[in-house]
Amino acid sequence: MNTNETNQTKNEEQQPDLKRQVVHNLHRVRTSVKWILIGIFTGLVVGAVGIAFSYAMSWATTMRYTYRWLLFCLPLAGVLIVSWYYLFKDLNDPGTNLVISAIHSGKEVPLRMAPLIFVATVLTHLCGGSAGREGAALQIGASIGNHIGKLFRFNENDKRVMIMCGMSACFSALFGTPMAAAIFSMEVISVGVMYYAALVPCVIASFVAHSLAAMCGVGWEHFPVTDLPAFTVKSACIVSVLAILCAVLSILFCELLHRTTHFFRKYISNHFVRAIVGGCIIIALTLLVGNRDYNGAGMDVIARCFETGSVFPGAFLLKMIFTAITLGCCYKGGEIVPTLYVGATFGCLFAMITSFDSPLCIAVGMGSLFCGVTNSPIASLLICFELFGYEGMPYYLLAIALSYMYSGYHGLYSSQKILYSKFKTAYIDRQAQ
Predict the structure, then answer these.
(1) Which site in 5, 141, 195, 337 is 20 to 30 Å from 303, CA atoms measured?
(2) For residues 45 and 148, is the Cβ–Cβ distance under 8 A?
(3) Residues 6 or more apart whose Cβ sits within 8 Å of residue 12
(4) Which residues of the chain carry a pLDDT beneath 70?
């Protein structure tokens, strides 16, 4: 065979490979364009709902401070919340655990979850229940994201991406941390594995929702931490002790939340009675404490810690108790802001005892505790950067790493899977405790 014939044979053999490569490249371009457009669309739709939720929460908080008698309506609010869920035949709503399960197993996240958690969370905050808002935002975003996936007739895998995309958008619009919001929805699902296929739509949806919220005048709490002490062996050791203590505290907080919910479900099976009893307990505790620092989300208390550098020594424990009773008795909301509250007050107390830099201890406490209860170190680090700035980077990185390891396999969400061990390179595939 001469040279020309040999070259012709090689060209004929290479043509199918070239065609396949062209087809693959076209498919990648088409897929990337699809997710970019879907990310923009989801960011606009879910961001708009997140903005409405943010304004509703601000209204509820203002009304609670203006009309202090609303606290005594908490049992009535509980009855209304249970009735609201009973109307939609969803009394045993598992909340964020359903969202995580849906991504793992392809379960449906019903669209009704969005209005249910929206109204119930506003009612809880209006009457003084101790709960957050970002957990509710995750459920709202997941519900709408899943429905958008169904609207566009996406397959099961793409609908999972849409759930994470919606979570990122609503979290970003409400909390004002687009980087952390984009990563958190992918990281919180399975410890040790990130769903990188969702990275592009989650990032785009997060930034679109954040920009839309900023244009609509949504305000976010940020606490710049500057003029920090030099990162030395001594300061690193002090922060390490705080991080390990926060890891232990995160285990206690998770256990308290889970055991309190189990206790009330076991001994008060009727949802209406449980809500009334829980509301009455919160009223009694509030009157006993003598102030309203432990009702609502508590961002004002966090801001006060940064401003004054002082706090009531038992504040972190009281917030844990108030939140556990609220969420264990059929009231709705999230656990994230209460977690930041507990971390801030405990960090402030640690600074008072050690005379170490107070703003740094508060920031480290918030980031460490958030990491301990969610098992999401990357999102925790990004939250620190976006809330406090980058100056304390070595402290935040060290504290979050230690908190992640020492918090073990506990977590807020029992549906969260821990695929890889925190202590060795081993695949374990177990549920969070």
Answers:
(1) 141
(2) yes
(3) none
(4) 1-16, 104, 106
Identify the DSSP state of 334. B
Which of 147, 204, 170, 154 is closest to 33 using CA atoms? 204
User: What is the token pair recorded at 305?
Assistant: 């810690």
**Rounded (10°) angle between helices 3-66 and 113-126:** 30
Task: Report the helix count and the strand count for the chain, using DSSP H and E.
Answer: 16, 3
State the number of CA atoms in the 13 A half-sphere of 408 facing the CB. 10
**Adjacency order of strands within the sheet including 427-431:** 190-191, 417-420, 427-431
Angle at 300 between CA 298 and CA 303, to 5 degrees: 120
Task: Report pLDDT digits (tens) over 366-424.
Answer: 999 999 999 999 999 999 999 999 999 999 999 999 999 999 888 888 787 787 778 88
Contact between residue 245 and residue 407 where contact means Cβ atoms under 8 Å apart: no
State the amino acid at position 119 in one-letter form.
V
3-state SS assignment for residue 428: strand
Distances (CA, A) of 83 to 72, 76, 91, 251: 19, 10, 9, 33
**Which 3 state secondary structure label does DSSP give 418?**
strand
Bridge partners of residue 430, in order along the sequence = 418
What pLDDT is stored for residue 101 in this prediction?
A: 75
CA distance 173 to 181: 9
Q: How far apart are CA 319 and CA 325, in angstroms?
A: 10
Question: What is the value of pTM for the model shown?
Answer: 0.91
Torsional class of 309: left (φ above 0), alpha (ψ -120 to 50), beta (otherwise): left
174 Cβ partners below 8 Å, 6+ apart? 50, 53, 54, 57, 133, 134, 137, 213, 218
Which tokens is 95 given?
């909340």
Looking at residue 8, its pLDDT comes to: 56
Enclosing H/E stretch for 67: none
Question: For residues 91 and 106, what is the distance between their CA atoms, to the nearest angstrom?
Answer: 22
Q: What are phi and psi of 330, to 5 degrees?
A: 80, 0
Q: Which of 146, 87, 152, 175 is nearest to 383 (CA)?
A: 175
| H-helix segments, 67-198 | 74-87, 96-105, 113-126, 134-151, 156-175, 178-187
